[in-house]
Design brief:
Blueprint (H helix, E strand, L loop, with lengths): L4 E2 L12 E5 L24 H9 L6 H11 L1 E5 L1 E6 L9 E6 L1 H10 L4 E4 L2 H10 L6 E3 L12 H11 L3
Parallel strand pairs: 2-3, 2-6, 6-7
Antiparallel strand pairs: 1-4, 4-5
């Protein structure tokens, strides 16, 4: 029987947050690991922080630096799934069986904050988010930061994020 994994991170929501980035669930190599630099998208292969570094021209080597940047820019971050089982031993969203959504924490956050934009990190997450929160209209999928999403070159992903995220 497959192990149920529980999300290790709470939503990060600065008081001035006007943009929300929603992903799915941490990669299998980060879920049980504790440490300063183990935060959202800390898998070495995931391109998220590389993209964010290029958008904002900052190093972002520690969780503290990442949180400080997101606080300055008014960006909240979280994941849609709270508990999952992995159907296969990889980090693909298609390999996740959702046991429990993070809908309570997200719903509470959405009541407290008025986001101008909600960006998901894939079309899959966008579809799942809209299924749970059908009345929210300002939702858009960014190009996936997964290296498996190769339809768009990394440079084009960076340009797209730069166009959408607050500068």
């Amino acid at each position: 029987m497959q192990e149920i994994e529980t999300h290790p991170h709470k939503l990060f929501v600065p008081k001035n947050a006007k943009v929300l980035i929603i992903g799915s669930f941490p990669g299998r190599n980060n879920v049980q690991v504790e440490g300063q630099d183990e935060w959202f998208y800390s898998s070495k292969r995931n391109q998220f922080w590389h993209i964010i570094r290029k958008v904002y021209h900052e190093e972002l080597n520690t969780t503290t630096e990442k949180k400080e940047l997101f606080t300055r820019k008014g960006i909240a971050i979280g994941d849609l799934f709270l508990k999952v089982k992995r159907i296969e031993s990889n980090n693909s969203d298609n390999s996740l069986e959702v046991i429990e959504y993070n809908n309570k924490a997200i719903k509470k956050m959405l009541k407290k904050h008025s986001f101008h934009f909600i960006y998901t990190t894939s079309k899959f997450v966008e579809k799942e988010f809209k299924k749970i929160f059908p009345k929210i209209e300002n939702v858009e999928a960014l190009p996936s930061p997964s290296p498996r999403y190769a339809r768009i070159k990394l440079e084009d992903k960076i340009a797209y994020y730069k166009q959408k995220l607050p500068i």
